[in-house]
Amino acid sequence: MLEEFQRIGRDLFLSSLVSSHGGNMSVRMGDRIVITHRGSQLGQLTTDDLVETGLREDDSNIMLASSETPVHRAIYLQTSALAILHCHPRVAIALSLLEDEIVPIDTEGSYLLHKVPVVVSEITSGSALAGVVATALKQYKIVMVRGHGCFATGQVLEEAYQWASCLEESAMVIYYSRTLGGQTKEYRRMSDKYKSW
Asked: In whole angstroms, what is the distance from residue 144 CA to residue 131 CA?
């Protein structure tokens, strides 16, 4: 398990999806979760950076766990996810400040994501965010929190990483196409369907 956390954490950092001490990841094991330590460096994880705690209730390890633990718990309790990652894809964050949903215009993003909802919370971390994110993830694989970052789910961490990586790539394509100006040319069959999930 440590190797999987290390591999995905390093990829998140090298892909610029997190800053040096940003983001968090977890996996569910029955009624327990393993989540990254509060303020850990995802690109340099060690055994001490993984914290095991209860899915439904706190124990002595909760003080070490990520401040996003309430969000991870809510997602596990309301979805079939077995792995969650939270990261800060910069272009997608910028789009979340302009849009209520991110609708990819590239082929991969259209096929894998269709659209990514942008949810809003006045407090963008911890328990205040848990309900709105978990509710959105009942219907989607990934969700953006306006101005903050994304939460992605999967059966393993690599799957959640795929959604986050795809989102940022799609956000970059949207950004580049807008920067180049002009009207984008539609090329997808039944493209009107991509705005609904």
From this structure: 14
Helix axes 157-180, 2-14, angle to 10 degrees: 10
Name the H helices within the chain: 2-14, 69-78, 90-96, 107-113, 127-136, 157-180
Work out the pLDDT band at 196, boundaries 50, 70, 90: low
Over residues 158-174, the mean pLDDT reads: 98
- Report the Cα 51 to chain-centroid distance in Å: 19
Asked if 144 and 96 touch (Cβ cutoff 8 Å), the reply is yes
Give residue 156's pLDDT band: very low, low, confident or very high (50, 70, 90): very high
Q: What share of the chain is helix, strand, coil (3-state, %, to 5)?
A: 45, 20, 35
**Is the Cβ–Cβ distance between 104 and 111 less than 8 Å?**
no
In this prediction, residue 127 carries a pLDDT of 74
Instruction: Give CA–CA dist 112/196, Å, rounded.
Output: 13
Domain range 2-195, its CATH number among 3.40.225.10, 2.40.10.10, 3.90.180.10, 2.60.40.1120: 3.40.225.10
CA angle (193, 167, 21) in 5-degree steps: 155
**Per-residue pLDDT tens digits for 61-96:** 777 788 888 999 999 999 999 999 999 999 999 999
